[in-house]
Amino acid sequence: MTPRQVATAVNKLLLIDIRTKNREIHFVKARALYYYVCKKVDERWTFLAIGQEIGVDHATVLHGVKMYNQNYCFYYPELKNYAEFLINHFKKNDIEETKKIEEELDLYLFLKNENEFLKVQLAFEKQNKNRFKISDKIEELLEKSPKKDLIIERLEALINMESKKVYL
To answer: What CATH code would you report for 3-93?
Structure first.
């Protein structure tokens, strides 16, 4: 097990690159998670070795671990869950187990993306359902109208004109 494998797992899990030089909070929390998990997985890894993997110095790693322990694990419970998940799997230090972790992370990401896709699809279906209600209502009104043929003819002309519009 190496810090690089931990960094890769954190990147995949959080869908960001922790090597990115950025001070936005989600990058800072992700790097702190990486530092914390590295120290918990193998206490023999030095702050310098952990930091070199992502291009920061040992003091930054030390500060990140301290911030994780004092703040992030309390205010961001999802980080604590991610840390427990990663630590439990990396502690086993087995190549087969590492492959399983990567497969679990890939499955998690797939399911997360699938969930987002389904949310968008559901919103689209709701929007289309409302459109069908409107078209059903128009048909109902047309059936009641004595000038049904004239109205349909004018609607078709309007649709035809709309489709031939030229936008500059």
So the answer is: 1.10.1750.10
Q: What are phi and psi of 147, to 5 degrees?
A: -105, 45
- List, for residues 87-97, the tens digit of each pLDDT value: 887 776 555 66
Task: List the end-to-end C-alpha distance of the chain, in Å, as a whole number.
Answer: 60
**Residue 71 and residue 32: Cα distance in Å, rounded?**
10
Say what the pTM is: 0.57
Q: What is the pLDDT of residues 120-162, one digit of tens each?
A: 888 887 776 666 666 777 777 778 888 878 888 887 887 788 7
pLDDT given at position 51: 94
Domain ranges of the chain: 3-93, 95-168
In one-letter notation, the amino acid at residue 148 is K
* Token pair recorded at residue 35: 């530092």
Q: What tokens were used for 42?
A: 């193998």
Residues 6+ apart with CB under 8 A from 35: 50, 61, 64, 65, 68
**Amino acid present at 97:** E
Report pLDDT digits (tens) over 5-16.
999 999 988 899
